[in-house]
Amino acid sequence: MNAKKFSPKLIIIDVDGTLVDSVPDLSFCVDETMKALGKKPWGEAQVRQWVGNGVPKLVERTLTGKLEGAPDKGEYDQAYPIFLELYAQNTSKRSHLYAGVKEGLDYLKAQGYTLGCVTNKAAQFTLPILKNLGIFDYFGLVVSGDTLEKKKPDPLPLLHSAKFFNIEPKDSLMLGDSVSDVKASRAAGFEIICMSYGYNHGNDIRDTKPDLVIDSMAQLKDYL
After folding, report:
1. Is the CB of residue 153 less than 8 Å from the CB of residue 179?
2. Which three-class secondary structure state does DSSP give residue 208?
3. Among residues 1, 8, 22, which one has the least CA distance to residue 126?
4. pTM for the full model?
5. Cα distances (Å, whole numbers) of residue 158 to 101, 162, 182, 183, 199
């Protein structure tokens, strides 16, 4: 990885796997859904390999035990509302900010960067988790997975954000953790920094060739 310096006017940040480790709550909901269906729970280590593409996809993986698989429609229609109800009650009971996030956000705010948040998580879950963990007010815009007609890896949420702030994509940077973040950023013309610790289905995020990989948001001050 080159240790280049970035000089963006806009920084867009992902939620799950970047700001927040939401797996403890998600795995609780996955396992309780499985129990409600009379099936064996998967456990947190397995669920950690599945998150990052939104709740509908996570429910599919819960039922099939695979990253890409089509569950029985009747079973999915039974499981999905169970999961939604569980997650509505357990959005941020066990989830927490990663080490360095608050320090990183405070630095970005102090430096006067324009900050937005783009996630594939639905708004009904995104807003409570940002508010409950005390970071909602850092962002001038929050684009959730159901805000627009398309979500990452489509570039639309990033392009929408740049237009909202009247900042060119070439002057914009995304901070994410997954291949979806890299693909969306490349397609939108954003630069992309990835966190080493996030959710990328067990694959090394360096393989997707982001502009930089860091281990903590506290390191941002060394590259901006």
Report:
1. yes
2. helix
3. 22
4. 0.94
5. 21, 6, 11, 11, 19
Which residues form the catalytic set?
A: 14
What phi and psi, each to the nearest 5 degrees, are found at residue 154? -65, 140
Q: What is the token pair recorded at 151? A: 């979500």
Q: What string of DSSP letters covers 52-89?
A: SS-HHHHHHHHHHSSSS----HHHHHHHHHHHHHHHHH
Beta strands in the chain (DSSP E): 10-13, 20-21, 96-97, 114-118, 141-143, 172-176, 191-195, 212-214
Structure tokens at 208: 């997707």
Write the DSSP symbol of residue 108: H
d(CA 90, CA 102) in angstroms, rounded, equals 22
What is d(CA 95, CA 186) in angstroms, rounded to the nearest whole number?
A: 29
**For the segment 63-111, what is each residue's pLDDT rounded down to a tens digit?**
999 999 999 999 999 999 999 999 999 999 999 999 999 999 999 999 9
Please return the burial class of 57, using the count of CB atoms within 10 Å of its CB with bins 0-12, 13-18 and 19+: middle
